[in-house]
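Researcher: I'd like a structural prediction for the single chain below. Treat it as a standalone chain; there are no partners to consider.
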Amino acid sequence: MATPLKRQLLNNAVGAGVFHIASTFVALLSIPFLVHGLGIEGYGFLALLAAASKYGGFTDFGIGPSLTRQVAYHHARGEAREVRATATVGTLFYVGLLALATVASLSFAPAIVALGHYRDPAFVRDATDLLRIFIIAFFAGGVGGNFQSFLAGIGRLQLASKLGASISIAGTVLAVVAVSAHLGLVGVAGAIAVTAAINIVLPYLAARRAYGPILAAPASLTWPSARGLLATGGWIQLSTIMVILYAETDQLIVATVLGLAASGLFDVGRKLARAVRAVSFYFATALMPAVATIHSRGTESLEAIVVDGTRYLGVMTMFVSGLLYVSAPNVVTLWIGPGPHDATIVHVVRVLLVVYVIDSLQAVSITILRGTGTPKLEAFYSVTNALVNIALTVALVRPFGLDGILAGSLGGMAVASAVFSVAYCRSKGYDVRVSLGVPLLRLALASIASVATVTFALHFVPLADDGSKLHALLTLACASAMYALVYAVVIRIAGVLSMRDLAFAKASFPARLRSVFDAPIVRGMFVASHPPLEKAS
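Model: Treating it as a single chain, here is the predicted structure.
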């Protein structure tokens, strides 16, 4: 991967992550205000809408990721007409969905709210208005997201991320202000409506300023303009449906077979474990435009990106997952407070961390498939994962309870990842054992050794365990420092990072920060070399 593209990748990934963390932090801060202002029933209805919106992904058809890929590809080739045609097809698609959703929300919102059997007529009226606005705003977000995908495609991912985070924060603040002014659900609906309008206008203006006119006359569009976008998006959509299907099926099986209490514990543990996926998500988001650009020029091997990208992603993902694995008891105590079910939640977190790490390590290969417009193998991976996961879960849940659910998740992911890795490497013509197997095995052993070492060492930390949040905080700080040090040493022993990686890191950071990499403790993590990419005979 050329250094300029590597630097762009790193900056995009860090920028997107920082903006997302900021918006997530503000959203978490708003929860007490919303609960207090809306009451538990009002907030519960708002949370129900947010949860139901996940199924809105069924209507996306994968257009967002596909549009980023198509725009980046044509932009790199200087094909402005195709860039505008792609943006126009995507915009028309989302505007059409918005029109249909508007009609549906106006027609069916009262019947949907009536299913809740709410007794207060005023609450039913406000909830109906909120549901209508929420549905319209959700699909309006698709139109704005279309322009943000366009920005990512022309290499302005940081700007797109900044806009998305800023709009999200503004919407959260408006909702809190409305609730604090005692406007209730009507105020929240108003805040969502204003945010939806901003979410369309600002990204469009930013895209137009960055590129010039971005839309073509609909009459000038041809079938080839839409075919690439829809074909790639269709396979991505199939993958998305499979992910939602197996994830929500697990939750449904837990609730129906093991009860609502087990469902709650499983959901809490799953949410905490999913934090590790943020690393691969932002890495892949930043990688997509770079892959499409390289593919359009045909000047550089994409296989090198798979090897280097998977290794870099593995180092970051296994660090975060190992740290969460070691500190899970303390994080759970700090997050939800000490309780009799902490051990169950910690068990769920630790098993699902392994599941999500296995999945995250496929992110680079999947992004390569998306970036080159060939996502069929990704769909095969998702379908295999869903089918094996559901089959194992159904077979194991009754004899083994929650452990059966976790075993199904782990088994499905392990089988699907192994089959996908072999199939992908064979399709590209290089040795999976040398190119991915050896580096990832070194990473896995390094992470396991670090977790085992820190877990053993924590037994000798002189902190009295009184079950309080203060003890959890002190232990978390101690575990984090110990794990970071041990992980760095073990990574050096395993020979995961080379001097070439050190040179890239120094070149990618601002000049004033490069001296950090000259420190002995940092420089000592890098070895002279590591096995290069080897083509299969």
